[in-house]
Amino acid sequence: VLDSQYGMYVWPCAVVLAQYLWTHRRSLPGKRVLEIGAGVSLPGVVAARCGAQVILSDSEELPHCLQRCRSSCLMNRLPHVPVLGLTWGRVSPELLSLAPIDIILGSDVFFDPKDFEDILSTIYFLLEKNPQAQFWTTYQVRSADWSIEALLYKWNLKSIHVPLHSFGADKEHLASSSLPGRHTIEMIIISLAQ
Fold this sequence. Notes:
This protein is of the alpha/beta class. It has one domain: Vaccinia Virus protein VP39 (Rossmann fold, 3-Layer(aba) Sandwich). The chain contains 6 helices and 7 strands; from the N terminus they run αβαβαβαβαβαββ. The radius of gyration is 15 Å and the shape is globular. 38% of the residues are buried. It is found in: Cytoplasm; Nucleus. It catalyses: L-arginyl-[protein] + 2 S-adenosyl-L-methionine = N(omega),N(omega)-dimethyl-L-arginyl-[protein] + 2 S-adenosyl-L-homocysteine + 2 H(+). Its main location: cytoplasm.
């Protein structure tokens, strides 16, 4: 039985996003990276191990997920990576006081349509503060009826599709993990629409 706190598991999208980061590891040293909905934090940990300055975040309402972020950092010898409680759609002191960022990461954050607008409003806020930043996100296709296109338009955001084959992630197994499996996973990069 799955824990109601989804952030307690490594999901297939996290492995795919980690593969993208690994493929682009030479561009990561010195980059300021924020992972939202981090949970187990695989993408953020990979970015930190590749030299990025990483901040991990998950909902302030999910203390077990925040503790999982901290545990992942400790297990990977990254004790100084900050972990923040940031809840999608909520402007908090932690969100307002974030240092500048270059890349926002999110793996499988688009899993529940009721959260889509809160996620994109948070991304819009972050991109407005950091106009050159990008949101790198992977998501699992769960329903043909679920789309963020109208919300991207509403929040003045644009997306670019990143083909999985362009970074070697179009396989059922990645980095000794069978997690991608036969799931349909997509990757997009979201930025401000100019």
